[in-house]
Design goal:
single chain, mainly alpha
Length: 189
């Protein structure tokens, strides 16, 4: 399997995993599976998106947007590393033995999540700029990635605790990832 196909499959599977486990099956959706599995597997989906974008970044080497892509993916990796901590704190908060512990861990998850989501979304915006500069995706799709990232930074910095506000960049990120993956699979090398 070549890098284009692999990155396309990762970028497509990522939002599907996130939607199924975070929005449909987990405690924030149908509450069919425990938080441990929903947040853990949903976060794995998020990490798959970063790996897919990293593969795209590798193919941009030597191009006009390559340095932007490197910076963007680095920010995504840093943000996602800490997002694992946020997911772990969410799992502990849902499964805590007392209301006091639930509130403590939920507050810690929100604090970590606000910062790491802002960093990750900044990385997504920079990757979108890299796509605009290098022109390896249609300008509308590249602009969408950039705008979603900017909206995500602002949302995370100002309203991370408001699910309605943060749903906009999260859904935008999933749509962007899906669209990028489809384009990757449809485009010939």
């Amino acid at each position: 399997m070549d890098s284009r196909t692999l990155s396309g499959l990762l970028l497509i599977s990522s939002p599907i995993i996130m939607i199924v486990f975070w929005l449909l099956l987990g405690p924030d959706g149908g509450d069919v599976i425990s938080a441990k599995y929903a947040y853990g597997i949903g976060t794995l989906g998020l990490l798959l998106m970063v790996v897919g974008l990293s593969l795209v970044k590798d193919e941009m080497a030597g191009g006009a947007g390559a340095h932007y892509a490197q910076v963007g993916v680095l920010l995504l990796v840093l943000g996602m590393s800490a997002a694992i901590v946020e997911s772990a704190l969410e799992i502990v908060s849902v499964e805590a033995a007392s209301p006091e512990h639930t509130a403590l861990f939920a507050g810690a998850a929100e604090g970590v999540g606000s910062l790491t989501t802002a960093i990750s979304m900044l990385g997504l915006a920079v990757v979108g700029i890299a796509f605009l500069v290098q022109k390896n995706f249609h300008v509308i799709l590249s602009a969408l990635v950039t705008i979603v990232g900017i909206v995500g930074v602002v949302g995370a910095a100002t309203s991370y605790d408001n699910d309605n506000v943060m749903m906009v960049p999260y859904i935008g990120m999933m749509i962007s990832s899906l669209a990028l993956g489809i384009v990757r699979l449809r485009t010939k090398a």
